[in-house]
Amino acid sequence: MSAVTAHPPATADAEAYRLMRAGRLAEALTLARQAVAGKRACSPAHGVLAMILLRLGRAAEADAVIESAARSGGGTGDAYNSLAHVSIALGRHERANALYRRAVELGPGVSRHWFNLASSERSFGRLEQAETACDRAIELDPTEYRGYLLRSELRAQTPAANHVEPLRRELSRPDLQIPARVLLGYALGKELDDLGRHEEAFEWFAAAASARRGQLAYDVAIDEHNVRRIIEAFPRGSWRVGEALGAGGSGGQAGAGGPGGGRADDSGRFVFIVGLPRSGTTLVDRILTGLEGVRSNGETDNVERALAAGAPGGPVEAGQGSLADYVPAADVDWAAAAAAYGRLADRGSGGGGSGSRGGGRVVIEKLPLNYLRLGAIHRALPRARLVLVSRAPVDCCFAMYRTLFGDAYPFTYRFEDLARYYAAYSRLIAHWRAAFGDAIHEVRYEELVSDPGRVGAALAAACGLEWRDSAVEVERNAGVCLTQSAAQVCRPIYRSSAGSWRRYRTHLEPLIAALRAHGVSLGELD
Prior knowledge:
Elements: H1 12-21, H2 25-36, H3 44-55, H4 59-72, H5 77-89, H6 93-106, H7 111-123, H8 127-140, H9 145-153, H10 164-171, H11 178-194, H12 198-214, H13 220-233, E1 270-274, H14 281-288, E2 292-296, H15 302-309, H16 334-347, E3 357-365, H17 374-380, E4 385-390, H18 393-401, H19 415-436, E5 440-444, H20 445-450, H21 452-462, H22 509-517
Parallel strand pairs: 1-3, 1-4, 2-3, 4-5
Helix pairs in contact: 1-2, 1-3, 2-3, 3-4, 3-5, 4-5, 5-6, 6-7, 7-8, 8-9, 9-11, 10-11, 11-12, 13-19, 15-16, 19-22
């Protein structure tokens, strides 16, 4: 008989992480506490414990774990890298940056530490430092393909300073796997576009998008169906603008207790910026956070978590199902959702918050996909300010097509998917416009970049904010930005992106035809 190889038991922190991923948070917490017991030096187990606490909604405890572990000293680069990851989720970006710096000090030969530091430096607008860190990550590990794409996005490439030939060499490797081919293809397309070599650029954008689409099990019909369900769930005339419906059939006002619970409705201090990705939502966010008393939580799942708290049958974990699985129910507890949102928003956690002037009395939520949830947001938070950012259809669709979003926005990698999704999105936005009227303030990207002072002042007035002309100097905004536009908003507002699709007109004829076939009005063409 052959000998059976015994596998060592999983460490307590590894098992805690597995249980956390499985949603068994209480069990995970017990094991994570055991894993850190008696440890005098900072360890990866502290990061696991902090993440579990955060998942349980115990942000203050998670923060305390990180502070204590960081002060304890010692440990490895992996330990500080783990603490930095959770710090970002807590919205503590300065601390995350310091922890990433500590990680590269302790693990200077670890490529991923340098990549993470590069991403952090970009979020603060320190683009030269970010490029240096990318270079180091690639030098240590030429297969750190995320670094190639990040590096290409940090600045406009020039004939004298670009990475076109190194990217070509990597892409010519016969053993290159699809994920690497996707990252490198988008990087090369972006650099060739910067150099004005549009024919070549499109070839690489198309190849990378096709490769990415081949990795996805996506059916745009499901999104079309969900949009129909949302429209049916929030029919026009089912409530008055600025007034929430009764929750749970009780006749009470949804959100009557206010976002904080037990006090007058103060939902007017919340601003929701929505719109398709690459439509200009980040730019709008940066302008508003240049005003007094405004703070942005960036792109978070706070709305989804808040709605889950008011779901029929009690709270559920955000992400367990489509929004359409629980929001349409007539017995949603909108007051509970409002209270939950207030707690989450005031915690200041999330995926890329900007700094504020004057303490952040007004709080921005800038997740583009919240356009699906405008009906639910308005019911739970009836005085919240709703800002819709729109961009000309072909321009917006091409901007999405040439961008790698990772796991988000799977409809962006094929023209037919883009056209069908954009048509469904247009129907939903038309429904919200009809239902809410002036409760939605719309910002058109082309007008914003053409006349930012006028459009910005109107936006501020719609949000109840005092305007200052300096707000349009977005390059001076010191806030953190973790979105795809992080490098772009380090520059003064520019017009060159508006209408950029025209440089690719021949290649985009199939997209234009598909949009028209699905009933999309092409204002820039019609």
